[in-house]
Amino acid sequence: MSGAPDKADNSGMSAEWSAMIEAAAAPVVADAGIDRLLNQDEIDNLLGFANPEGGATNQTGLRAIVDSAMVSYERLPMLEIVFDRLVRLLTTTLRNFFSDNVEVSLSDITSVRFGDYINSIPLPTILAVFKAEEWDNFGLITVDTTLAYSVIDVLLGGRRSAAMARLDGRPYSTIETSLVRRLLEIVLQDTELAFKPLSAVHFAIDRIETNPRFASISRPANAAILIQLRIDMEGRGGAVDILLPYATIEPIREMLLQSFMGEKFGRDPIWEDHLATEIWQATASVDAILHETQLPLRQIMSLTVGDTLMFDMDPDSPVTLKCGDVELTDGRMGRAGDRIAIRVNRPLRRSKTTFAAYEASATVKKDGK
Q1: What is the pLDDT of residue 1?
Q2: Which residues contact 246 (CB under 8 A, 6 or more apart)?
């Protein structure tokens, strides 16, 4: 009789275990939010590839974390002023060069890694490696296929058509490369003029390449500034990319960090002229010191009317000329007409103290007091 309850309990426990196993093996409902699989869009958002056209300024996800060490071009505000000036210069120059209506626009200025940009260049292409001689480093300028064939078509007298036929995949001939090289030289010349108010520099083409692998001027992981220009010629045109590694613009980095309104690049010629005029018109008093001696205070206090102070000098002794406390030169006393005059014996002494050293000495004196 005692075995019957035990048997009932065992059967109930077995049924409970069976229910738990079936519940664990059942598929999870997607709406429950447990162990849900990500779709392709969510994976792209997580990795930062949701917006393939986004540059370094609007990256998200893991891609933004990886590229967080990149230096943003916005820390160099003077670059926008320089390349805005380049757009205006290039528009006028290319209109004269092509004898056609040309519009040049600045598409974007971004920070990229050199290796990523090289790997993104489609083939065939024309790349020019140029050297900034004063900065002692190199840069890269790229002309895309559409613009290259447009330049060739315009210079060789082709007709204007909406759809221009071109041979994709065919390498450029020597004549085609020479024609595109003329465009590259014009772009670099105007870039020199755009940088001239900031820093005098000469961009010289070092070599022309058609394979991006042979245009390596920096390490793949190094940061660079990418300037994308758009050139349109009434239905024809394309893009020009100028790549400047940060090592190339390092000599003028302090100037690029400045922010000035307009295009005077921090210089004000009106104020310079006014300051020069006022300096030339300023008056300064010059004292002729015949002799200086030091006397005890007791002797000075005991002086009375009629006492004589003897100076250890003769008529031919030199006279010191001073402006305030600064000794300028010395001379010899004489007479010019009815006036006492001094003939200068040697040129004025130039101060060897720089303005920075003068400020430092003044600060030390002030702190000492």
Answers
A1: 46
A2: 71, 222, 223, 224, 225
Query: 178 is written with which tokens?
Result: 């020479």
319-323/287-289 β-pairing:
antiparallel
Distance CA 230, CA 178 (A): 21
Alpha-carbon distance of 84 to 101, in angstroms, equals 19
Residue whose structure tokens are 């221009």 = 164
* Closest C-alpha among 36, 57, 61 to residue 46: 61
Which residues of the chain are under the pLDDT cut of 50?
1-3, 28-33, 52-57, 69, 71, 261-264
C-alpha angle 312-317-319 in degrees, rounded to nearest 5: 105
Tokens (6 digits) for 24: 């664990």
Tokens of 303: 């002086």
The b-or-e profile of 337-350 (16+ CB within 10 A means b, else e) is eeeeebeeeeeeee
Q: How far is the C-alpha of 302 from the C-alpha of 228, rounded, in Å?
A: 87
Q: What share of the chain is helix, strand, coil (3-state, %, to 5)?
A: 40, 20, 40
Q: Is 210 exposed, middle or buried (0-12, 13-18, 19+ CB in 10 A)?
A: middle
Per-residue pLDDT of 111-147, as tens digits, reads 888 888 888 888 778 888 999 888 889 999 998 888 8
Q: d(Cα 134, Cα 137) in Å, to the nearest integer?
A: 8
What is this structure's pTM?
A: 0.54
Dig out the tokens for 328 from the structure.
Answer: 């300028």
Residue 215: partners with Cβ closer than 8 Å, 6 or more residues away: 118, 127, 129, 140, 209
